[in-house]
UniProtKB/TrEMBL annotation:
Family to which the UniProt record says this protein belongs: Belongs to the peptidase S12 family.
Protein name, entry field: Beta-lactamase-related domain-containing protein
Superkingdom of origin organism: Eukaryota
Pfam families according to UniProt: Beta-lactamase, DUF3471
Species, as recorded: Penicillium cinerascens
Entry-linked InterPro entries: AmpC-like, Beta-lactam-related, Beta-lactam/transpept-like, Peptidase_S12_Pab87-rel_C
Length: 517
């Protein structure tokens, strides 16, 4: 039985905290919905678009990785649908048995044994390989991307490490579509969104933009770019990477998402097997793995949900971010309480944590732990320090990173063996990725990459065939600088370029080979 909802949480104290977060985290606007018992409260703050378009509670946002919970739910439904068929499936069904012509990984054992459960809980052994967002075509098909996974290095044995990756949710999406015969967006609309009255939820920005009643509601995304005079807002293009689908393509509002949160709390809608979706499947301990830096006795991942215990309460949550957008969704089922927060800056992903904790603390009342406030202050301070370091890195010189990446450079550095023009050309990777170098103003740079995050990579010489690579979007530095190495063949021709793009590989480079027409 739903409990009676409390009065609106959007009081003067909360409003003041929101405005503080908007300023501290450089978020133009924020839309929030809170579910408590039988009531849903919502409020918007700030701007949906500069210079003066106000944010609204029905504004639409790319919800990014909060999509993953829907993909887990869809998988649960397909599993249930299969029970009375000649070919039933379950969480332990290998993906390769569903899409044998397409799914293969770098090791045969993984190909044969990685299951739906493994893929949806980030425990396959394959790391994120997020560089593919930049170097693979934005119109790549699901099948093409899934087939390319066999060319991506593995970093750990299966089921031993939590490694967050979009690729496996994309593989599951492809498997679901092959099994059901319908696109994932159609399945979600017919089986989840329409039954719980999510009328303005879409799988992809193009779908939202093509809907006459929704197109004008899509909030514009921004990034704050610091400079010597303080900083400025820069507009971010709305993403449309075709393969993202079940990994992060949903566009929705906090009003629609609040209905999804209520369905999860009350277990009253079309979805079955709720408990299986939030059952912890893998524990993770490394600092970079933690979705929200909460002082929890454990951190776990279920099927599209992070799982924590906060002040004795099971707390399920997930963030989403993409350049220009950030979101946070969470619920505390035993208190029939949940929330959705969406903002038009990717820093909203982190900045909203303090708001969520404020709401939960008000729900639970004062803590009896004398160290609670101290721990949470340390948590929030660490968040701010990490953000400030990222901002500083945007402004730091390439020379600074050269010393960090190459602490033992000879003095003077060794010259590169070829004229810069001889390194120019298009280099390809078998995972349908490519990069084209040219010389511009005495520096090797790439043409704008063709991926979901169109970027330009500039190389600064370090020593010999080694360079510092620094990726920039038209607006800002998007990626920490990394090591780039060219390989020269015996004839004196540049044949390969290796880039340290995947941190989990501990220095093992991703190699692209020169493409010759």
């Amino acid at each position: 039985m739903p409990v009676a909802g409390q009065q609106s949480p959007f009081n003067a104290e909360f409003d003041q905290l929101v405005h503080k977060i908007l300023e501290e985290w450089k978020i133009p606007g924020l839309s929030i919905a809170v579910v408590h018992g039988s009531h849903t409260h919502s409020k918007s703050y700030g701007l949906a678009e500069f210079p003066d378009k106000k944010m609204t509670t029905d504004a639409l946002f790319p919800a990014a990785s909060t999509t993953k919970a829907f993909t887990g739910a869809a998988t649960s439904m397909v599993i249930k649908d299969s029970k009375d068929t000649d070919s039933p499936i379950d969480w332990d069904t290998p993906i390769s048995s569903l899409i044998p012509d397409d799914f293969a990984l770098a090791e045969d054992y993984l190909t044969r044994h990685i299951t739906l459960e493994d893929a949806l809980s980030h425990r396959t052994g394959q790391p994120g390989h997020h560089w593919m967002n930049t170097y693979t075509p934005e119109d790549e098909t699901l099948q093409e991307l899934v087939r390319s996974m066999r060319h991506l290095p593995i970093s750990h044995p299966p089921r031993t490490h939590f490694q967050y990756t979009n690729n496996m949710f994309i593989a599951v999406t492809h498997a679901l579509q092959q099994r059901t015969g319908v696109p994932l967006g159609t399945f979600l609309k017919e089986r989840i969104w329409d039954p719980i009255d999510m009328k303005e939820t879409f799988l992809g920005v193009p779908e939202a933009k093509s809907n006459p009643s929704a197109a004008h509601k899509v909030a514009e995304g921004y990034i704050w770019l610091p400079d010597d005079e303080g900083g400025s807002w820069l507009h971010e293009p709305q993403f449309k990477w075709r393969p993202m689908t079940g990994a992060g393509a949903i566009v929705s509002s906090v009003l629609d998402y609040s209905k999804w949160v209520r369905e999860l709390i009350e277990k009253s809608g079309p979805l079955k097997g709720h408990d299986s979706l939030i059952k912890p499947r893998v524990f993770h301990f490394e600092e970079g793995d933690v979705n929200l830096p909460l002082p929890s006795p454990h951190h776990a991942y279920a099927l599209g949900w992070f799982v924590d215990n906060y002040r004795g309460q099971d707390f399920y949550h997930h963030t989403g971010s993409w350049p220009g957008y950030g979101s946070l969704v969470g619920f505390v089922p035993d208190k029939q309480f949940g929330f959705v927060m969406m903002g038009n800056s990717n820093s909203a992903r982190e900045g909203t944590l303090r708001l969520a904790i404020h709401l939960i603390d008000k729900l639970l009342g004062p803590s009896t732990d004398p160290l609670h406030n101290e721990r949470m202050a340390a948590c929030f301070n660490r968040q701010i320090e990490e953000r400030e370091n990222r901002m500083k890195n945007i402004q730091r010189s390439t020379e600074y990173f050269k010393k960090r990446l190459f602490p033992n450079l000879p003095e003077p550095p060794l010259p590169h063996s070829l004229a810069l023009e001889k390194y120019a050309g298009t280099y390809t990777h078998p995972a349908n990725a490519s990069v084209t170098f040219k010389v511009e103003d005495g520096q090797l740079v790439t043409e704008k990459t063709r991926g979901a995050i169109p970027s330009v990579l500039g190389l600064t010489h370090a020593s010999g065939e080694f360079f510092v690579g620094r990726m920039k979007t038209p607006n800002s530095a998007m990626m920490a600088p990394f090591i780039v190495e060219f390989q020269i063949d015996p004839t004196g021709k540049a044949r390969k370029v290796g880039m340290d793009l995947e941190p989990a590989l501990k220095g093992e480079k991703i190699w692209f080979e020169l493409h010759e027409a």
